[in-house]
Amino acid sequence: MGGRVVRPRVHGVALPETSPLALAQSLIRCPSVTPEEGGALSLLADVIAKAGFAVERPIFSESGTPDIQNLYARIGTGGPVLLFAGHTDVVPPGEADAWSHGPFSGEVADGMLYGRGAVDMKGGIACMLAATLRFLEARGPGFGGSIAFLITGDEEGPALNGTVKLLDWARERGERFDHCLLGEPTNPERLGDMIKIGRRGSLTGRITVHGRQGHVAYPHRADNPIPGLLRLASTLIAAPLDGGTAHFDASNLEFTTIDVGNPATNVIPATARAVFNVRFNDDWTAATLGAEIRRRLEEAAGNAIRFSLDLQPSNSPAFLTRPDAFVDLVADAIQAETGHRPALSTTGGTSDARFIKDACPVIEFGLVGQTMHEVDERVAVEDLDRLTAIYGRVLDAYFPA
Ligand SMILES: [Zn+2]
Question: What domains are there in the chain, each with its CATH number?
């Protein structure tokens, strides 16, 4: 391990609030819309420091983006090191009047806790924290390993000054992790449905077809790029990119826009553009996928269509955490608490797991994601208690007495 001296001081110290509901309410009341810290990380730092964690609050900068506050905390000096990861920033609430309870009120009604971040993912962080505090209360600091928290305020934004830099910062200080549990909302319908053991990659490309502008009544003197663009677009959606892999669905290409931007009805335009995004599986890297798309376009274009293809640099590779003893340990904890054996899935959008996977094996399990990013984002109070119990079982199994 690195040379840091971390002094647990749990025994004899009054532990802070360990109710996940109270913690989640306090976090929701911090208006931490990216890039604002909103008091959320300070609150977290206070609670976790009282439990004996050594807490650091690095701030990262990048020209052209706002400075971002982050949090790293650790208790214990030896291995194994279990890392809890997540984010306290939230997406904007939109029209506050549209909410049945204020987006930063943290109100409970009919057994549901309302507020921006209730499921994505202040609720998840509250459960990780409550489970950890209870675990330390029961076991004391000599539990035979280390627990770390890596929490960013830049997940819902550009993600430049968050987890990526925080992981680099931790590595430079000699911090090493054995496994990571990321608390994003992974369950589609009910708690216990799904663990994410990987994520698809994402690649965005722009096709421009070049023609020659002219009068619609004299098409022989022009070169309309629109038919060529339609042919290239049809080529890309005609044949599947692959048939899926052991743990991934087939890669999927979607066109997101086709633009000519021509206000005139009597002019043949000079260029036509289309943008597509591919969510790809572990058959591909962004480079091999980009090359295959270019090959298919060139084959369809022949000498007849002049086009260019711009592929955006991708920081979202496909990755898989192979099912192993740690995945089983978490699945066992979920099954014991909910009665469901969770599906092991790689569906959905990208998350910070794509960065953490370079530091240690990472899997994701959190609350039910149905209302994330929506008006009236909410979580069942009962789910907060059950997720806390699940994380508690994970800790008990990971650090056997
Ligand atoms: Zn999230």
Answer: 9-199+318-398 (3.40.630.10), 201-311 (3.30.70.360)
